[in-house]
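Pilot study result, target chain (140 residues):
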Amino acid sequence: MNLSFSSVCSFRSIGAAVALIGAALAPCAQAATPEQLLSGYSAQAALPAVPTRGQQLFTTRHGREWSCSSCHGAVPTQAGKHASTGKAIGPLAPAFNPERFTDTAKTEKWFRRNCNDVVGRECTAAEKADVLSWLLTLKP
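Predicted structure:
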């Protein structure tokens, strides 16, 4: 293949443009909707989400000191309070707090921390899907 100087420069320009576009869109890659996250968790689990299972997981203690509802309330449509620190926690249900479940990295961080506190391990994709599907049923 015989490349001229101008074609090499064109390839470099295209590559630079693609890199620039990718860098500009990177913050958007972490943005999501609760429905998109639910779809992703359900696909990872290869099972449909079941809201009643999510509610049960949320409100039940699993051999640990707390349940999700210990801090978020049995119906997480109002502000909660951390069980040990007393720190205020905004409503968890997306219909009552539009910022919830809109950032994939943040969602994963809090699922990881809270699942460890509640069930003593990371939650499975199916468990995340179930809880999120239940939270999405809560409407004003």
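One observation from the pilot: The mean pLDDT is 85. A full batch analysis is planned for the follow-on phase.
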